[in-house]
Write a sequence for this structure.
């Protein structure tokens, strides 16, 4: 029996080893920027000889970087609102449709994620030129919302597939209108999916580079585009500090949602 258990453990270890190796290969470059961000020298140092917060201080004291950060936050927040409202509305409509029509419309709605990003960027740029939206925050919000809304539709739609729609009928029979029914009956049961998809939309918009490069112009550069420009002209030590801040922000946004979803899953089981 002990030999069998040993063989089982060895088998699991052999299966897990490639996965761990791949995970390390993907995560190690990301984690490497964290110690580099504390360097005080003018060059990249994986292990800083004199650790400090000089690069973070340079970032927060730079008007250009702060302008790019404000633009990114404005665009990401606007995208979060637009994509969440549109995506939740679309998911609610799709959930009550026949299967055939729903499958066709879902395919149409996720089309922006299927089309190569560079193709979408060129198409958006050509359209925006006609309407004067190139280089505007509004144009960026609209473009990012088109990219983020499909994820909201998928996330919220998956939650609505297990929703008991007889609760809606009961609510309507008691005199509640559509708005009251949504906020009192539907939303409390899908709130984690809505919140998770909203945070995902925020993160997608905040990190988006390709489409933003085409339509941001020179007056609405976001933080990722500013980083891209900095890489093109010089490899500045401030870049690891910016990358670390982006990583930390992403973790602070997504980890609480994942923990809440885990607790809800455990409670329901």
């Amino acid at each position: 029996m002990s030999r069998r258990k040993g063989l089982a453990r060895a088998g699991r270890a052999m299966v897990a080893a490639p996965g761990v190796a791949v995970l390390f290969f993907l995560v190690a470059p990301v984690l490497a920027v964290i110690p580099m961000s504390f360097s005080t020298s003018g060059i990249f140092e994986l292990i800083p000889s004199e650790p400090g917060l000089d690069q973070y201080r340079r970032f927060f004291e730079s008007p250009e970087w702060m302008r790019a950060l404000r633009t990114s936050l404005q665009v990401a927040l606007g995208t979060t609102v637009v994509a969440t409202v549109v995506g939740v509305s679309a998911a609610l409509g799709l959930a009550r449709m026949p299967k055939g029509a729903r499958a066709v419309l879902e395919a149409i709605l996720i089309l922006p994620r299927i089309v190569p990003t560079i193709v979408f960027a060129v198409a958006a740029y050509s359209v925006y030129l006609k309407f004067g939206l190139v280089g505007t925050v509004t144009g960026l919000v609209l473009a990012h919302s088109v990219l983020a809304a499909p994820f909201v539709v998928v996330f919220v739609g998956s939650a609505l597939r297990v929703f008991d729609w007889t609760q809606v009928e009961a609510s309507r029979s008691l005199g509640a209108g559509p708005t009251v029914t949504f906020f009192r009956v539907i939303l409390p049961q899908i709130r984690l999916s809505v919140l998770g998809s909203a945070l995902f939309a925020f993160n997608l918009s905040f990190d988006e580079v390709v489409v933003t490069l085409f339509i941001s112009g020179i007056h609405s550069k976001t933080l990722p585009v500013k980083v891209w420009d900095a890489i093109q002209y010089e490899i500045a030590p401030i870049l690891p500090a910016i990358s670390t801040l982006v990583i930390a922000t992403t973790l602070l946004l997504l980890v609480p949602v994942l923990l809440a979803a885990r607790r809800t899953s455990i409670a329901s089981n």
Observations:
- Residues 54-268 form a domain with the MetI-like fold fold (CATH 1.10.3720.10).
